């Protein structure tokens, strides 16, 4: 099962929005939100909540790709998120997520008995390539008790 399939199966909101997981590697995750009228805002573009979910889902996909081998001993959890809406988003939008710290550094903290935190940055873009939103989601790997 791919990471995108796993997220669609376990995260009902990702499934509800019809998110498309286009690329998921430990270095980068790319997720698309199709243009659907029932997810539009008052100006005809994707609702801010849908764009937030898109970005958070892309960040979760890269976290699973980078740290999936740690799931037996730790659960990934989003700690906090910040989003800036930069330009009007119209039509389908795509979120591209990247890790803000090397995965090996995060795992080393976990190995040392600490609960690491690490940022994932996300750029949300429209089809013409313009960045319509920027997001940072801070994640942790919470050790299993």
TrEMBL record:
What InterPro entries is this protein classified in? DUF4442 (IPR027961), HotDog_dom_sf (IPR029069)
Matching entries from CDD domains are given as: PaaI_thioesterase
Q: By what name is this protein known?
A: Uncharacterized protein DUF4442
């Amino acid at each position: 099962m791919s990471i995108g399939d796993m997220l669609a199966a376990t995260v009902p909101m990702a499934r509800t929005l019809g998110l498309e997981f286009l690329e998921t590697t430990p270095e980068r995750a790319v997720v698309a939100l199709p243009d659907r009228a029932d997810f539009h805002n008052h100006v005809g573009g994707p609702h801010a909540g849908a764009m937030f979910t898109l970005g958070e889902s892309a960040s979760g996909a890269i976290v699973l790709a980078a740290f999936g081998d740690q799931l037996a001993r730790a659960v990934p959890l989003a700690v906090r998120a910040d989003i800036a809406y930069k330009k009007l988003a119209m039509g389908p939008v795509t979120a591209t997520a990247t890790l803000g710290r090397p995965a090996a550094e995060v795992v080393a903290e976990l190995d040392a008995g600490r609960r690491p935190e690490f940022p994932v940055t996300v750029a949300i873009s429209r089809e013409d390539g313009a960045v319509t939103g920027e997001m940072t989601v801070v994640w942790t790997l919470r050790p299993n008790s």
